[in-house]
Design goal:
eight-stranded mixed beta sheet; alpha+beta; 5 helices
Length: about 170
């Protein structure tokens, strides 16, 4: 059984260890970090810049064995009627056990029941089929946007799919 708690700096050592190649790293972080690999200190420095921003925070998923997942939550608009998930990752040794679905489902439940938003959204690269399937299994649907979000990753242009789940 997975539980959620706020992200702590000590979680970074586990999270960065799950990223074993640059391709997976870029699927997780796009261009948010300017080098690979990153260290726990790099991750904590990245999050440090938002420590006083009440509109974004990190969450950690754990079970009796320890830290097994991580994601961020943020309000993408001033209305605070939508919560956006980001940096979603599960320990690569724990994949294919349903932990990703359970973690995302808990995040959605938290967003709707405790934060009282009307919508949860996220962006995922088109080339991240496993993540797309996970989000779909949690009820997320692809939505059409006027402009496709894209990033230059590893010398290629990667397009995002926008997904959302309404209350």
């Amino acid at each position: 059984m997975i539980k959620l708690r706020p992200y702590k700096n000590c979680d970074a050592q586990y999270i960065v260890s799950w990223i074993t190649d640059e391709y997976a790293f870029r699927q997780w972080s796009a261009d948010r970090y300017n080098h690979y690999p990153i260290t726990a200190s790099d991750m904590n420095l990245y999050y440090e810049k938002d420590k006083d921003n009440a509109n974004i925070w990190g969450m950690t998923a754990f079970d009796e064995t320890g830290v097994i997942g991580h994601f961020t939550m943020r309000f993408p608009n001033d209305d605070q009627d939508e919560l956006r998930l980001g940096f979603v990752i599960v320990d690569n040794l724990q994949r294919k056990k349903g932990y990703g679905k359970e973690m995302v489902s808990l995040a959605v439940q938290y967003a709707f029941e405790f934060i009282k938003v009307q919508k949860v959204s996220l962006g995922v690269f088109q080339n991240n089929i496993a993540a797309i399937r996970c989000y779909e299994s949690c009820g997320f649907k692809e939505i059409t946007t006027d402009q496709v979000e894209s990033y230059l990753c590893m010398g290629e242009r990667w397009n995002c799919i926008e997904m959302a789940l309404k209350k």
